Automatic annotation (TrEMBL):
Organism: Streptomyces jumonjinensis
Known role: Pyridoxal 5'-phosphate (PLP)-binding protein, which is involved in PLP homeostasis.
InterPro entries: Ala_racemase_N (IPR001608), PLP-binding_barrel (IPR029066), PyrdxlP_homeostasis (IPR011078)
Organism classification: Bacteria, Bacillati, Actinomycetota, Actinomycetes, Kitasatosporales
MF term (GO), any: pyridoxal phosphate binding
Domain Alanine racemase N-terminal: 25-249
Annotated coiled-coil segments of the chain: none
N6-(pyridoxal phosphate)lysine, modified sites: K53
Keyword Lipoprotein: no
Keyword NADP: no
Protein known as: Pyridoxal phosphate homeostasis protein
Keywords, ordered alphabetically: Pyridoxal phosphate
Top-level taxonomic group: Bacteria
Length: 252
């Protein structure tokens, strides 16, 4: 983390940062609204999730003041203290990173939605942790569009042929609620550079899923660089980091 984020405004407060976040949010909002209009969709069909990973709790607080109600993190080590520091705010916390089973108990304490369900072992562990914490966790199956049948993706996610088994497991697991599907556009393979096609494929899998699980209607796709393609394809949730908070000071 650079000290850029802690630089005080002219009056010694975080005013500059607030103005910066407000301007970035307005730009992203305009992009989402235009993409919805172009696709003939209502603006309220798409929820913005701001990915706050690597940025401090003070930014989460400013975002909340600016009207953001959904935030996402990808590492429990960073997310747990941040969520604790913002526990007084009415925020939904989404966990979007690869999740080790030894972090599940911590994540179940603050996450409202875990978007990266990609194996049976995780379903079992999350269910146990959710019940123990007395919480209900929304769960999205992360789909690796470029993974071979029976395999998982390099950046997490289950191959499409594994969606239904995981969905059934989530649906019957105490403490878990099946929310839908999530994907990250593949960097390699047949979908590399073809975000629109990738997201349309995800929407096909979502239609298939909803035949047996009608309530599982969340489709989380699209980031700073490709949110328009995701909205065009029918995503219900976009996950935007860089375009709101700036280029991350370190990999995350
Ligand atoms: C970091 C991250 C995002 C946001 O990416 P940006 O390009 O910064 O908008 C979205 N989804 C996941 C899973 C991420 O890890």
């Amino acid at each position: 983390m650079t000290d850029r984020h802690d630089t005080p405004g002219p009056d010694g407060g975080p005013l500059d940062r607030r103005a910066e976040l407000a301007a970035n949010l307005a730009t992203v909002e305009e992009r989402i609204a235009s993409a919805c209009a172009a696709a003939g969709r209502d603006r309220d069909e798409v929820t913005l999730i701001v990915v706050t990973k690597t940025y401090p709790a003070s930014d989460v607080r400013l975002l909340h003041e600016l009207g953001v109600r959904n935030v996402a993190e990808n590492r429990d080590q960073d997310a747990a203290p941040k969520a604790a520091a913002c526990a007084d705010l009415d925020l939904s916390w989404h966990f979007v990173g690869q999740l080790q089973t030894n972090k599940v108990r911590s994540v179940a304490g603050y996450a409202d939605v875990v978007q990266s369900i990609d194996r049976m072992r995780l379903v079992t562990a999350l269910s146990t942790a959710a019940v123990r914490a007395g919480r209900e966790l929304g769960c999205l199956i992360q789909v690796a569009l470029d993974a071979d049948a029976g395999a998982r993706g390099e950046r997490g996610g289950v191959a499409p042929d594994g969606i239904e088994q995981l969905a059934a497991a989530v649906e019957s697991a105490p403490g878990l609620r099946l929310g839908g599907l999530m994907t990250v556009a593949p960097l390699a393979g047949p979908y590399a550079g073809r975000q629109r096609a990738a997201f349309e494929r995800l929407l096909e899998f979502s239609s298939g899923l909803r035949v047996g699980h009608p309530a599982a209607n969340m489709v989380s796709a699209g980031m700073s660089a490709d949110l328009e393609e995701a909205v065009a394809a029918g995503a219900t949730h976009v996950r935007v980091g860089t375009a709101v908070l700036g280029v991350r000071p370190r990999l995350g």
